[in-house]
C-alpha cells in the first residue's frame, strides 16, 4: 500500500497546493501530515487549506476516481 498526503492550498489567498509525501504506512502518513502542518503553521490561520490522504495499491497507473482511494479529508472533521 501507498499513502499519498496532499495539501490543497488556498486559491483565494494565492497559496499553492503541495504533495506532502508518499508513505508505505498510514501511521507514517498521518504523522507526516501533522508535522507538515505544524512546521508550516497551517493550523494557526483557520481552514484555508484542505488536507487529503489517499490509499493506493499500485504505482504507475491512473486512478480516475479519487473518492475510491480517499481515506482522510480534513474538511470532514
Automatic annotation (TrEMBL):
Top-level lineage group: Bacteria
Name of the protein in question: Uncharacterized protein
Originating species: Metabacillus idriensis
